[in-house]
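Exam revision sheet. Question 4 asks you to relate a sequence to its structure. Input first:
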Amino acid sequence: MQTAKETVDLKKVGVVILAVAVGVIGWNSPVIYPLKLLVVLFHEAGHAIAAKLVGGEVLSLTVNSLEGGLCTFRYQPTFFNTVVTASAGYLGSAIFGALLLVATLRYRAGKWVLAILCAGLSLVLILWVRDPFAVGVTLALAVVMGLGARFLPVDISQLFALFIAAFTSLYALFDLRDDLWSAERRAGTDAAILEKATHVPSIVWAVLWTLLGVGMLAGALWFSSRSARTAPPS
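Answer key, structure tokens:
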């Protein structure tokens, strides 16, 4: 009988460090501009999915060149529906980031991640995106993901998907920090919408979403770190 535990994958560690460095040092670099638009799409897709889950109708979904986005929908504005749909943007980004981390770190499903991103972006494009800029961005990102899934070697596709996962998680936290922890910027966010609808101060929603976002990402890292396997008997 012989057992072996997986060692730390230095390539994966390097990719995660690179994603953090790019986010912290090169936040305004045009190189990562497409990735930032991708996370904005995740944010708006979170609203759209939540609206559908509560029985609403999604009218449109768009992103703009300033890294902003908007999802318009109709729904029955009950307390529950309002909380779910308004929370689904920031928390949706964090959920997407957490799922991508688990898929790439624990299950090494790089090609599947890229293929699913391609399919998801294509579906969003067909169903909801109509603005020319948003159409171009969504289509270009879907093509890149699809080509990566089809043609990149397994190891390279894994590292590429992991970089997207790490960057998405980082952007989700930055998004929460930048939009929700400034009283001036919070005035035009989903937290302000909930304050008006529920009379709960927007800072309370900011705190709650931040704690949930950090908790989900920490949980994804913890779950992924428990991936050591015992080798089969030799």
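Marking note for examiners. The chain has nine helices and two strands.
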